[in-house]
Specification:
It contains 14 helices and 12 strands. By secondary structure, it is of the alpha/beta class. The longest helix is centred in the C-terminal third of the chain and has 34 residues, at 267-300. The model has no long low-confidence stretch (mean pLDDT 96). Bound molecules: pyridoxal-5'-phosphate.
Amino acid sequence: MNRFEEFTTHMVQQVGKKEGAISPAIVNSASFGYGNSETGEGIFEGSVKKPLYARMGNPTSSQLEQILASMDGGVGAVAASSGMGATAMATLSLLRAGDEVISIGGLFGGTYSYFTETLTRFGITTHFFDVDALDAIEETINTATKILFLESVGNPNMRLPDISRIAEIANRHGVVLIVDNTITPLSVAPIALGADIVVYSTTKIITGNASALGGAVIFRAISEGEDKFKSDRYHDIHPFIKKMGSMALIANAKKRALRDFGMSANGFGSYLTMLGLETLPLRMDRIVTSVETVAKALNEKGLNVNHPCLPHHPHHERYLNQFSNGCGTLLTIDMGTKERAFNFLNRLKLITITANIGDSRTLGLHMASTIYRDFDESTREFLGITPGLIRISIGLESAEAIVNDFLDAANI
Ligand SMILES: *Cc1c(COP(=O)(O)O)cnc(C)c1O
């Protein structure tokens, strides 16, 4: 049974109930009555497991959190208001002024500006590296390094990291590895590969139809024996380990991020995200095959396509050996100039021009004039943003129909 088959069963069984209402209940209350003061005290203390207040958690979102945690083999998850909310939660719950982050590969534009413009204002420095700069990454790790942050697939440079090797470096140095797995849920299992924390924008393929903005952070369990979180580097977490044991990272994130920053998910959004999860394995399975079909067909016809399934891609071997369940819905095409990119995009009939990815529909966007418009020349070069670059997120349409539409638009 491949991973998608296995999870198709798992997801439909987890989302639907066998008794009563099958579809998850949407709880829309901002606050919850405690009944009596003793229960109220117990809820605040943590001995009574009942809802406290919607900023701290919501029953509908709790179901979503359990499904996502089981998907990635985490001990628990915390849903967030957006993918950026999830990234902020995962990082801010571990960082303090003077700390350093090492960011590897990618990078999603919002995450890049979060590191370079926002976190710097709070005295946190981020160092950026290509996925293959392993020696430089290792040399940069020092006692102030709290986080190695990695994107599972370079968006939009399509470079693939050797996640196990990077996890090995992180673990050897006792530093936390966070993987943004937004592009490759199910295809890549970061915790199984040695990562500690997984971040998702559920807005993308997990929900899959532009109906809900959301995010989630999945945490591994703290080990009973030795654990890097028990080292001095993470002393802020120690009180949570003492109190909550294996669940310490969840409690820490809820306190630091939900209670104090309020990047909380809402019940209705979480409901829509669960409907997406039901069909995620089916959609992933279909799209990772379609992406290859489209990339190969357009490459054969002479378009300048970037996807690691193509033999000339620098990470083709890694794609075959370590990404056997594909690397998500994206491919890019370099049209040479902005003008040719615009003309091409405007002639395509099937695609929707938008900044989203991972949708049921095929989406396209010119990179330099949109998401990366405010970035200077050298940053664009580092991120692989050339003037004619178009990013395509393949959808559920027939691969043949997509290929034909692209060939028509390119006049091939
Ligand atoms: C979209 C995206 C995000 C941010 O998610 P939002 O839900 O838009 O806040 C983070 N990382 C990656 C890789 C993304 O594609």
